Amino acid sequence: MSRNRLKKLHRRRERRVDSLEKGKVYLAYLTVHDFFFYVSKELKVGLPQRYISNTALMYALNTHVSLAQRVFSDIKPHYNEDFKLFTIYATPAVPVPTLALVGGGTIRGGFGGNLVKITYNSVGESLAFAMEKEGINIPKIGAYYRYTPLTTFRFYVLGGKGPSVIRIGKKYIPARVSYHKLSYVKKKGVFRCSHPVSVQDLKNGRLLSGVPLPALPYPIIEDAIIEGEYLECKGERGDRHFILLPPREVYESLQIF
């Protein structure tokens, strides 16, 4: 094959890779279509943290990775092994109270975002409290706080689109996800994250400031200023987003590095 022909093929390949890379970062919105709950801390009452852990999101988005969808396993989590298999990375998700996805379309208004208390005992609260006053021995009432249907969360996705409908949370309730493509440039330096950060993903970055929050399986840092590698992204309307580049030794199958 001639040298000119090789050069043309090389240039064509470069254009193809560039066009693929532009589609590998997305701003995503997730709307739950049932009462949604997960427990960040529990002592008689189960209370969710404000953010959805990116570990839960990545398991929900990477259903195509069959080895990570464990039908039978021991009780010890296999996060480190599964993270290496995931081809889609997600940041922790933040609630967005003015947006909802219904029937594949986006509607705006005051939807969801509220926490409601639902008891998980078979005895109603009014009857149980009356029985307590009479000194009858009954189990303590327990409850979970749950997000109402149509509550929407925002997060970022790296590596490609996931499913448009997923199941997530303690009862694997259905949720719809929409993806909005972002162009990006890789950079290195000091930046303020546009999203909460999992402590697990700070291995190659230096945290300069932030607010730590308890979460499972890894704590989350909000309002983080970090020194390290990141993606400076731009949306269709020129809006800018700054996303921490996750450590490649943790996410070996992620095609974004």
Structure description:
The protein is an alpha+beta fold. It has a single domain (22-244), classed as Alpha-Beta Plaits. Helices cover 17% and strands 38% of the residues. It is built from four helices and 17 strands. The chain has helices at residues 3-21, 54-61, 79-85, 125-133, and strands at 25-32, 41-43, 45-47, 89-90, 94-96, 99-102, 105-108, 115-119, 143-147, 152-158, 165-168, 173-181, 183-192, 197-198, 206-213, 220-234, 240-244. The strands form four sheets. Strands 1, 4, 5, 10, 11 and 12 form a six-stranded antiparallel sheet that branches. Strand 6 (99-102) and strand 7 form a beta hairpin. The longest helix has 19 residues, at 3-21. The protein is globular, with a radius of gyration of 22 Å. The chain starts with a helix and ends in a 13-residue tail after the last strand. Mean pLDDT is 80; it is low at 6-23.
Q: What's this, in brief?
A:
The chain is α+β, with helices and mostly antiparallel strands. The protein is 17% helix and 38% strand. The protein has helices spanning 3-21, 54-61, 79-85, 125-133; strands at residues 25-32, 41-43, 45-47, 89-90, 94-96, 99-102, 105-108, 115-119, 143-147, 152-158, 165-168, 173-181, 183-192, 197-198, 206-213, 220-234, 240-244.
* CATH fold label: Alpha-Beta Plaits
**Mean pLDDT level:** 80
Order of helices and strands: HEEEHHEEEEEHEEEEEEEEE
Structural class: alpha+beta
Oligomerization state: single chain
CATH class: Alpha Beta
Give the number of helices: 4
Q: How would you sum up the global shape?
A: globular
Strands, total number:
17
Distance from first to last alpha carbon: 32 Å
Show unreliable segments: 6-23
| CATH second-level architecture | 2-Layer Sandwich
